[in-house]
Amino acid sequence: MQTSPSAPNHAAPLAVRGVAVERGARRLVSGLDFELQAGEMLWVRGSNGRGKTSLLRLVAGLGTPAHGQMLYDGRARPSQRHVVYVGHANALKEDLSVVEALTFLLRIHGGRLDAAALTDSLAHWGLTALQHAPVRTLSQGQRRRVALARLCMERRASLWVLDEPFDALDAEGAERLNDLLAAHLQRGGSVLITGHQHALSTSLTWRELDLDDRAA
Amino acid sequence: MPAFCRALFVRDLRLALRRRGEALLPIGFFVVTVALFPLGIGPEPQTLRAIAPGLMWVCALLASMLSVAQLFTADHADGTLDQLIVIVLPLCVPALIFGTGAVAAVEGGQSATAHCSLLGALLIITALTAPLASAAALRLAVE
Q1: DSSP state of A50
Q2: Is the ipTM of this complex over 0.90?
Q3: B128, exposed or middle or buried, with CB in 10 Å at 0-12, 13-18, 19+?
Q4: CA-CA distance, B55 to B63, in Å (whole number)?
Q5: What is the pLDDT of residues A70-129, one digit of tens each?
Q6: Are the Cβ atoms of A89 and B142 closer than 8 angstroms?
């Protein structure tokens, strides 16, 4: 594990230049500068309300920074396929089954539906027996697993933006997520993540960005 | 139809079938509201014939308002809106004008072809531009 942002690279999957993070009219962080290289994970830390989620939403393209700019492979806008965002909310419909909910998430993001990969993904998260169960009958941890099952289908070296992904997961679920993160980083993907540090596997390496040090 | 739109359409259809009460509520509202007018203003055919075109379209518009709120609220609450950021923005005022005209034309024994053509053109324009307008509006809303 290292600390502090890395040396610049113009073709970085993500380059954040002088970005200010605001919530409403309140500026939380200013002058944020960092890059995320291929195969790297950046863990964003900070006390409650410091702007971790707001920063991740900006990176995911769900907002425009009040100041500064973000570049994705040198471009101003992220492509739909370049960034995979899993937020606090699981984006699952109560009345859909596990397979239907997962299929919908994959299809709206333009992913090709590979039945074998879907089966493997459900098996990876221990959801095979629940695949036809309505989402409303699942526990919070199981719902989180369904939302994260989408990551299993990702084969691209994309940028994963994960907001508290370990929330509600048990030890086994956390281990499975760590396996996915390791495989993604190995194939040259990048990860921007928040959450509890102790949930990340010690076999992974990551850099830290502490928003408490950069409060506006 | 693009894969994105097809996925959204199939999902919404599936959800409507599983929550039939919610899906049928606007239709029920429309029928009940229209049926109340003869009770309220009297069963005089001439009067009813005169107000029917506007009445039906206004009731249809009000009924559609019931489902507009559901369109975004649930998706926003469960995080789906973040994953979408593109849906439909109804451009209902011109539809109301031409729709009323079509009903009035039929009522007067004339052809409604011209009005229906304009409504068709409106549908095409809306289908092309509404996703972009809605995406911009929703992006502002979630920021």
Answers
A1: S
A2: no
A3: exposed
A4: 12
A5: 898 888 877 666 888 999 899 999 999 999 999 998 888 776 778 888 999 999 999 999
A6: no
Query: Model pTM?
Result: 0.76
Distance CA A16, CA B44 (A): 70
For B56, the token pair is: 């039906």
User: Which of A63, A64, A91 is nearest residue B79 as measured by Cβ atoms?
Assistant: A91
Give Dmax (Cα) for chain A.
49
Beta bridge partners of A75: A72
The answer for residues whose C-beta is within 8 angstroms of residue A68's C-beta and 6 or more apart is A16, A17, A18, A19, A20, A31, A32
What span, in angstroms and rounded, lies between the C-alpha atoms of B141 and B88?
14
**pLDDT digits 0-9 by tens, B54-93:** 898 899 989 988 877 777 778 888 888 888 763 334 445 5
d(CA B75, CA B79): 6
CA-CA-CA-CA torsion sign (A171, A175, A176, A177): positive
Q: What tokens does A190 get?
A: 């990048």
Distance, CA of B57 to chain centre: 10
**Using CA atoms, how far apart are residues A121 and A105, in angstroms rounded to an integer?**
14
* Cβ contact A185:A157 at 8 Å: no
Mutate to test the interface with A, among B12, B75, B83 (most CBs of A within 10 A): B83
Q: Which two tokens stand for residue A3?
A: 């600390």
Tokens encoding B48: 């009813």
Of chain A, the end-to-end C-alpha distance in Å amounts to 27
Residue of chain A nearest B18, judged by CA positions: A95
Query: What's the confidence (pLDDT) of residue A80?
Result: 62
What is the rounded radius of gyration, in angstroms, for the C-alpha atoms of chain B?
18
Mark out the alpha helices in chain A (DSSP H runs).
52-59, 98-108, 115-124, 140-152, 171-186
